[in-house]
Amino acid sequence: MAKSIPLGAPQASVKLNWRAYLEMTKPKVVALMLLTVLVGMCLALPGAVPLQPLLAGLVGVAMMAGAAAAMNHLIDRRIDAQMARTYNRPLPKGKVPVSHAIAFAGGLAVGGFALLYLVVNALTAWLTLASLLGYALVYTAYLKRATPQNIVIGGLAGAMPPLLGWTSVTNEFHGHGLLLVIIIFTWTPPHFWALAIHRRADYAKVDIPMLPVTHGVEFTKTCIFLYTLLLAVACLLPVLVGMSGVIYLVGSTLLSLGFIYKAWQLKYHEQAGTAMGVFRFSIYHLMLLFILLLVDHYL
Ligand code: HEM
Ligand SMILES: CC(C)=CCC/C(C)=C/CC/C(C)=C/COP(=O)(O)OP(=O)(O)O
After folding, report:
1. Chief location of this protein (predicted)?
2. Atom 11, ligand 2: which residue's CA is nearest?
């Protein structure tokens, strides 16, 4: 009987820790990014994607994106502790010591870079490192606290994954890969600002100059609406350059109309929960858009 307590307790705490480390990598965000990496890889080649760069590329980008997310948790731990959405994160809650989080983020970053550099190619390794630094340092440590355009500029780092997939299997830049980056880049402001409207008080409390705090909710709604129009144009680019066909055209047009409608509702007919509805829609929009690109490519 006396033995069952010491045996049970460490198991429980190891399990708890494992979840805390996973949480620091923002697994759902990284999962959607990996879908865009995969689509970048598939669209880059007419036939089957070779297995080695496919697997090593996905794992390497996942490790470096997870490292960037853990660095974001480290840098933001003090403001996270004060916001209702984030106070429960592993670092503010003391579930992971800061020194362990630094080692975890550093280890993931070095491991991911080495994997990409040695097994995939140097171009992808350096581009992924630039994305990591763009998100963890340029966005999190600087832009986030400096300007309401923080997520517009910083969004470039988060938009890079399809290009990272493209270079993983071709070892070269291509304009078509950049088009996919432009789509995610244009998608990011309506994605984030919808959430920022809902969480405006959180950001105001910790003095983070998000657009609804600095320019007001009405102005932010207008910007969201205008960005959904810009995104609809960006989503047509793959068809205009001949990369995608009718299946993608029809599907992406429906998604664009849906997003524009949601943003219109937010601007002119907001009810409780509309802003979070736009935020959730944005995630399904991007996921379905990239699935459509894939389906269209192979059918
Ligand atoms: C600078 C660019 C971006 C900003 C500022 C941003 C911001 C956010 C924020 C604040 C959340 C809420 C997280 C939470 O509830 O704790 C979120 C959720 C999410 N974001 Fe973004 N995001 C960005 C780019 C991206 C990109 C590029 C992707 C995917 C390709 C993405 C996919 C997601 C997903 C899937 C979620 C839901 C996560 C969950 O439910 O746990 N985001 N984003
Ligand atoms: C290598 C590579 C592809 C890097 C990309 C890294 C990455 C995980 C980007 C995600 C963007 C994101 C969720 C931003 C939110 O940060 P926030 O600090 O505004 O939100 P938070 O308050 O929820 O932390």
Report:
1. membrane
2. 158
Check if the beta carbon of residue 139 is closer than 8 Å to that of residue 128: no
Selection from 14, 8, 20, 190 nearest residue 104 by Cα = 20
Best CA proximity match to 126, nearest among 164, 179, 155: 164
CB 279 within 8 A of CB 188: no
Q: Does ligand 1 come within 6 angstroms of the Cβ of 24? A: no
- State whether the beta carbon of 68 lies less than 6 angstroms from ligand 2: yes
ipTM of the complex: 0.96
* Residue 199: CB atoms within 10 Å: 21
Q: What is the DSSP letter of 49?
A: P
**pTM for this prediction:** 0.94
Task: Give mean pLDDT in consecutive 10-residue pieces for the chain, a chain of 299 residues.
Answer: 38 66 98 98 96 98 98 98 97 96 98 98 98 98 98 98 98 96 98 98 97 98 98 98 97 98 97 96 98 97
